[in-house]
Design goal:
2 copies of one chain form a homodimer. By secondary structure, chain A is α/β, with parallel strands linked by helices. Chain A has a single domain, classed as Cytidine Deaminase, domain 2, CATH 3.40.140. In chain A, 40% of the residues lie in helices and 17% in strands. Chain A contains 8 helices and 6 strands, in the order E-H-H-E-E-H-H-E-H-E-H-H-E-H. Chain A has a 5-stranded mixed beta sheet. In chain A, helix 2 (33-49) runs parallel beside helix 8 (175-186). The relative contact order of chain A is 0.15. Strand 1 of chain A pairs antiparallel with strand 1 (10-14) of chain B.
Chain lengths: 197, 197
């Protein structure tokens, strides 16, 4: 039987214009974990306000200079792509900018990923391949579950598993502010999710 | 301190020309699990021969018609993107083609992901969000480790975890042929990997 197969030859994930502008204008370094998390939570807030995706944001910072390298927001619905989580976008943009698939390559500085929520199972699994050396998170799995999202079948001992791959982890940074963003979204946004059984 | 931030506003993952051609020409349906796996392993072989990425391939099939929907290969090195695993490419292409971030949406047929190797931690975590209903794998984690790759910190009970999310799993399909592809690549290809501690 003959069927029609796809002629699509690429995957394009386009950032919202507002995000490109905000990132370009963020020229000051952000020296504290709280300042970096506040910046990322602000991106999640703007993603809700502009209706350009889910209530999640993430950014990559140079750990030596505290300079912003790249930022991503959740683009799952507008891009029709379930892998378009904020962390995946931020990591991929940083790798594109640095022309390397491994942000932990020997000739590069160390990089931190700051995420408004703890990573889901997919983003957790992406971290060892990304080359980042440190992860900072805001809201946790309980906060996400409280509004109908969840982190998926994440490794039960995920922090230790990352530590064993050379990635240190800090959780609960600006947790109250990070949780509030999820609750703001829950009042009006689409809670998409995988079927759970 | 002022720094330079990225002006990059998109992530573009471009398929190799040969893959687009092979997919367009694959108009016959593939009715058996072995036929579908053989097709996918052939893509992994071609990815090695064309030097367009790692020795991994994956494809999405309509479970009702056994028609090919999309196919991906590992593009990590040529695209400078650590998330560009074969499974992620195949899933994203199918979602783009069907204009939906959830291949398990109520108005769609059921879809199967066929992968030349078992999923790594990232691709495992991506499956519940993708909406696929069945996973078929060839080579296993041991086969990947034997040539220096690994599956990362995957959930220790990953098959059960997928089953609990409504995704059935078959492993070891055409395992000998799938393993041979990895060994072929190991003789001349780049074994990139994350640091493991």
């Amino acid at each position: 039987m003959k069927t029609n197969t796809t002629k699509i030859d690429n995957i394009l994930l386009q950032l919202p214009t507002w995000l490109t502008t905000v990132v370009a204008e963020q020229s000051d370094t952000l020296p504290t974990p709280e300042a970096r998390m506040h910046f990322v939570i602000q991106l999640a807030r703007l993603n809700i306000e502009h209706k350009t995706g889910g209530p999640f944001a993430a950014a990559i910072f140079n750990m030596e200079t505290q300079a912003l390298i790249s930022a991503g927001v959740n683009l799952v619905i507008p891009s029709n792509c379930s892998m378009a989580h904020a962390e995946m976008i931020a990591i991929s943009l940083a790798q594109k900018q640095l022309n390397h698939y491994d942000l932990g390559a020997p000739d590069l500085p160390r990089f931190e990923l700051v995420s408004s929520s703890e990573p889901c199972a997919m983003c957790f699994g992406a971290l060892p391949w990304s080359g980042i050396r440190h992860l900072s998170c805001g809201a946790d799995d309980m906060d996400a579950r409280a509004i109908g999202f969840d982190e998926g079948p994440r490794h039960p001992d995920w922090v230790k598993a990352l530590n064993e791959r050379g990635i240190s982890v800090d959780t609960g940074i600006c947790k109250t502010e990070a949780k509030e963003i999820l609750q703001t979204y829950a009042k009006k946004g689409i809670i998409y999710n995988a079927r759970q059984g």
